[in-house]
Amino acid sequence: MNLFLLNLILALVWGAVTASFSPENLVFGFVLGFLSLWLVRHRFNPDNFNRPIRIARLAGLFLIELFLSAFRVAADTISPRMSFRPAIIAVPLDVDSEVEIMLLANLISLTPGSLSVDVSTDRSTLYVHVMDVDDPEALRREIKDGFERRIQEALN
Amino acid sequence: MIEFIGGVIILIGGAFSLVAGIGLARLPDLYVRMHAATKAGTLGAGLVLAALALEAQSLEVAARALAGIIFLFFTAPIAAHLLGRAGYLAGVPLWSQSCMDELAGKYDPESQALEGEPEPQSTCGPLT
What we know:
The complex is a heterodimer.
Chain A: H1 3-17, H2 23-39, H3 47-78, E1 87-92, H4 98-110, E2 114-119, E3 125-130, H5 136-155
Antiparallel strand pairs in A: 1-3, 2-3
Helix pairs in contact in A: 1-2, 3-5, 4-5
Chain B: H1 2-26, H2 30-55, H3 59-89, E1 100-101
Helix pairs in contact in B: 1-2, 2-3
């Protein structure tokens, strides 16, 4: 049985019991439902609970990256001397499904300072334009250990 | 209090949009300009919409603002990717201060098929 559906039903029941179907109350009921299902999680496949947590972690990582690098790019843009060094670097890919590559390329593009240019036809390499490079190896490691690993965790 | 927070968020969003505009005007090449246009622009507009969702006293407005943020975040990277790729295929040169281009020579000029790079460079060498 789909746990998400069960959770939705619990939210509706909460709405009925408290006699209010206002959106806030339904969301609160959903959270309560999730917590109560989480309490009896040993009866279900544990993966059902880990996945939403991993997806939330990916979203958190993305938001943090978004803000940190936005300030760096803003500083580079308005500083009087253009002292940054852009480059197009190749990032070897471990993820191989279309959805994972799309997600990775889009997250990279949305993070300031890096922009996906193209994916090789055999899906082995992602080419990224980076606004300021010191150490290409460190950059690749950052992408692979950050977004790529989290995407694999969230989708597998 | 919510009004104050919303106002601060709108100011930050406006500042990012301003930086995006400045970047578009003064950054050195197409690719670097795209960084300013897509990223700072998305974040700026996203923040303004987020503040609207926060301040709006009606759920309708908040839901529409949130939908706007989601659409921005889905469409901006795709547009950026296509513009960057089109620019590269059309032969727009990288800025002379760029330190490497691992995409050089990887496109098949006929089919536009793209080769992979099994051994990427580990140092930012001179541009070839």
